[in-house]
Amino acid sequence: MTTTAPTTTHTSPALRVPPAGPSAAAAFFAARLAFQADVSDVHASLASGAPGFVLVDSRGSAGWEQGHIPGAVHLPTAGIPARAPELLDPAVPVITYCWGPGCDGATRAALALARLGYRVKEMIGGIEYWIREGFATETAAGTEARPADPLTCPAGPDEDAACGC
Questions:
Q1: How far apart are CA 36 and CA 95, in angstroms?
Q2: Which one of 18, 77, 93, 162 has the minimum C-beta count within 10 Å?
Q3: Residue 155 pLDDT > 80, yes or no?
């Protein structure tokens, strides 16, 4: 006796639109990595002493004063066309950041820089995830680091541990 599988199909809500084929997916994800860097990789690069890029904080003065990544260049998006040539070397890649994942300020800054001929990436997560991962920020009062948020990165005795991804 031969049995056959039921003919009823169930499509999950997540697969209503089927995944792209492997070659299209590979092209998409490779392109995404060419346009974005995460905060852990930016931190590790800066800590190396030779990051190979300039980090640009594209927020306004109030955000910069509230706290910024040590070593970042303050270049608010609106000032990019006028000030980028005096602050940035076109031969050096740039990584932009703004407030966080709910803000597209870093994207607008990256677009403005790309239009001026700079090679640029966006730091995904912005300063929000920089702080949530326990990395230091700088203000006029000095440098401060908060404990890492265990919902965003490894936390505990070895907070410098990589996430493993």
A1: 8
A2: 18
A3: no
